[in-house]
Amino acid sequence: MRLVVDLNKCQGYAQCAFLAPDVFAMHGDEALIYNPHAPEEQRERLARAVAACPVQAITADGLDGTEGAEEASDAR
Question: Which PANTHER family match (predicted)?
């Protein structure tokens, strides 16, 4: 699963850090740091974090479970 946060959109509300603290963290008052290659076991927390972002700054490839299938079809 791959995460991308548009740091130009991010306003530092920290909802993601609250909902998925193993993946997102605030550095200071407004700077977000995150793991762009989130572990599979964080899928449910990540789905909540993506949905909770007030400015829709987070996207997650493979969150719906299609990442592996997509990569397999590309290999053909």
Answer: FERREDOXIN
